[in-house]
Design goal:
The protein is of the alpha+beta class. It contains eleven helices and 15 strands. It has a domain of 140 residues: 3-Layer(aba) Sandwich (Beta-lactamase), CATH 3.40.710. Helix 2 packs antiparallel against helix 11 and helix 3 packs parallel to helix 7.
């Protein structure tokens, strides 16, 4: 159980004072610092009510940092205060980074978006769709799929490939578990090549293109990066994304010198928070970012900081450009941020998505005229979150980047991301 002491409250006051002075010293005119204190109150309330142990929040407007604060503890028992450079497990926020790597290779002419996956991985030829399933012995029957899976299907999650252990139909979870296919969330053992070969032998949940089903698509894209580039995903991303974007704290597995900056993982136990001291998901070690694992999950394997992820999002606000380098063309950015889902396409229920839902080739959900009534984001905004309660988005109209990173396992307080968005927009002027 977490107990907050007077020194803890004093620490929070010091943090608020330091960063408020920083913001004021820059004389930001497009940001109401007084109204922004409501964000402080929101996060302090969640800490006090033991929904989160701590958080970092970063807001950038028109290229200028207007809010950069840390709250609470990175590790409560050790009394390690949260800092703005703490490192978080970003889980599914990895998908957007992998998608960018894929589109870089697309710009090099390595593939076309509507190529069948089997052109590059023959084991995925002639896919079959699940028809019946026997719960007693996990046996099933199938039929031929109406068409093959394409690269576009993988990027927009319309392949029919589901998730193992999480965010998925229980039948597909059972099939994947029996076959030894991991979710990628904390997975350290095995290699992409061998696990994707197993995935190719499993039935699809539905015909390719028939529905949006959140699944292992981006792990398969990670393996395709290996095929197209001849490099492991971590090596390719470091050379082409992390190093040139100055994302110096983003890794699949953290180097020893940075492991102490990893935030501890917590979970809600009734009305209190406790540190996770048991395996998560499919038996993964909660300290998986510090382990020298061999499985490189393009869909869920990265850890990062708010500052690093802000640099990544800024690439999209600047049409593929960072400082003096063009990473991808403006036309490619526009394509990546275009909605790829038809209005009548069924959307998988887990994790729940707003209606109507729009998703691009970028790994981001999109704000469109059809769903612009849900939150204060402007049309053209884009973003995604991670399973450990990390949130991020960018709004081109406002020149805005917003990031809120916390670190909880199976948190019932996912709404903190939307609350943060509301309070960010009310502080704009």
């Amino acid at each position: 159980m977490i107990q907050y002491t007077k020194p803890f409250l004093l620490l929070l006051l010091i943090q608020l004072t330091v960063f408020s002075v920083y913001a004021q010293s820059n004389k930001v005119t497009a940001w109401n610092q007084q109204r922004a204190t409501r964000i402080d109150s929101l996060l302090l309330r969640h800490i006090h009510e033991q929904h989160i142990p701590g958080a970092t929040a970063l807001i950038i407007r028109n290229g200028q940092v207007v809010y950069n604060k840390a709250f609470g503890y990175a590790d409560v028992a050790a009394r390690q205060p949260m800092k703005t450079n703490n490192i978080f497990r970003i889980a599914s926020q990895s998908k957007a980074i992998t998608s960018l790597a894929v589109m870089m290779l697309w710009e090099q002419g390595r593939f076309l978006l509507d190529d069948p996956v089997s052109m590059y991985l023959p084991a995925f030829a002639n896919p079959r769709v699940l028809v019946t399933f026997n719960e007693k012995d996990s046996s099933y029957t199938t039929r031929p799929a109406k068409r093959e899976i394409t690269i576009r299907d993988l990027l927009r999650h319309t392949s029919g490939i589901a998730y193992a252990a999480v965010f998925s139909d229980k039948t597909m979870q059972a099939i994947y578990t029996k076959a030894g296919i991991p979710s990628g969330i904390g997975t350290t053992n095995g290699m992409l090549k061998e696990k994707m070969a197993l995935l190719a032998a499993q039935p699809l949940q539905h015909d390719p293109g028939a529905a949006f089903t959140y699944g292992l698509n981006t792990d398969l894209l990670g393996h395709l990066i290996e095929v197209w580039s001849g490099e492991r995903p971590d090596s390719f991303m470091h050379r082409h994304i992390f190093a040139p974007l100055e994302m110096n704290d983003t890794y699949f597995h953290l180097p020893a010198a940075k492991q102490q900056r990893l935030v501890s993982l917590y979970e809600n136990k009734g009305a209190v928070l406790v540190k996770v001291d048991h395996p998560i998901y499919e038996g993964a070690d909660p300290l998986f970012p510090n382990l020298n694992g061999t499985y490189l999950s393009g869909g869920a394997g990265l850890s990062s900081t708010t500052a690093d992820y802000a640099r990544f999002l800024s690439l999209y606000l600047h049409k593929g450009r960072y400082k003096d380098k063009q990473f991808v063309s403006a036309a490619t950015i526009d394509l990546m941020l275009a909605n790829q889902l038809s209005p009548d396409l069924p959307i998988s229920p887990d994790p729940a998505q707003p209606t109507p839902f729009a998703f691009g080739l970028s790994g981001f959900a999109l704000e469109t005229p059809a769903n612009d009534h849900l939150l204060p984001l402007n049309i053209g905004s884009f973003g995604w979150g991670g399973a450990f309660n990390t949130h991020g988005w960018a709004d081109p109209k406002e020149g805005l980047i917003g990031l809120l990173f916390t670190q909880e396992y199976l948190s019932p307080w996912w709404r903190i991301g939307d609350e943060f968005k509301v309070l960010t927009y009310q502080a704009l002027q």
